[in-house]
Amino acid sequence: MTTPNGFKVNIIGERINPGFKSTKALFDNSDIPGIQALAVRQAEAGAAYLNVNIGSRARTEPQFMAEVIRAIQAVVTVPLSFDFPSLEVQEICLKAYDPSRADGKLPIVNSITEHRWDLMDLYKSFKFKVIMMASERVEDGTAKSNRTADEVASTAKRAALRLKNEHGMPLDDIFIDMSVSAIIADSEGLSRGTIDAIKRIGSDPDLKGLHMMGGLSNIGQQLPPKAVDGSDLKHALECAFLTLTVPHGFDTLLGTPWRGYHPLPDDHYVLSTYRAFLEQTGTNAIRVVRKFYRA
Questions:
Q1: Which one, 75, 129, 202, 209, has least CB within 10 Å?
Q2: CB under 8 Å to 184, separation ≥6 — which residues?
């Protein structure tokens, strides 16, 4: 979709998640009509998919998980993304999902890693798209965090080609989660590494057709809500990240559809400061972050 102000990105609606207090209340009260209303609101706001995460009840009450999926599909035709790192839970979700109620569109399994590849065993019985986390790799049989652009890009390519060659999954069905970092705690250049990795993946002819995505809500964590000009700092930071990455193939985001994501002009205060932040490491990076709220 094209957002109202010009970004060509698909939005996976994030709101069906107990991390939001209002949604947690819906789950705590088993408020199915309320969950349905939230699904409809996101779909009407332009979500291409709806992420579904009901928290720990997915394990303890699998019948409730299935009930939620069927209830959502009764009121919207948007395909769903199932957000659980568990083969057993994902199997329950895939069994409950009815492609005919989503115009034949496949659901998304969110998410696999090189260390959590067992979820792909489900591909023998179900067809789905997949979100692959590029934040960790397997080395000598051990899961290790990726810290550099080379590690992220190499993991993404290795996993994507494995999905294509070993499982027959089209690249168009693969979403690489680029794991956007919170800038307040980023003194090691992780954000710069993520953006550099996006550029590398986006320019790799072997990965043409692959999707890159991420959840943007982390980026402004623990920062004050307003920038020095009084604008919504966290949202402006999300837009700054998109301004720098969408041209390089970052085309999907986990977010709130009605947030109004839009490109920032070159002279925008937050974009300029964010660019300066990306050039720094250590205490210099933290000093630049302070400029977001220094009058």
A1: 209
A2: 221, 222, 223, 286, 289
- In this structure, what is the dihedral angle of CA atoms 288, 293, 294, 295, given to the nearest 10 degrees? 140
Dist. CA 20–CA 181, nearest whole Å: 19
Against a cut of 0.70, is the pTM above it? Answer: yes
pLDDT tens column, 48-68: 999 999 999 998 999 999 999
Residue 269: Cβ within 10 Å count: 17
Judge whether 74 and 33 are in contact, CB under 8 Å: no
What pLDDT is attached to residue 3? 55
* Residue 55 to residue 52: CA distance in whole angstroms: 9
Fold of 10-290: TIM Barrel (3.20.20)
For residues 261 and 5, is the Cβ–Cβ distance under 8 A?
yes
Q: Given the DSSP bridges, would you call strands 142-145 and 136-139 parallel, antiparallel or unpaired?
A: antiparallel
Q: Residue ranges per domain, the chain?
A: 10-290
For position 239, what pLDDT does the model report? 95
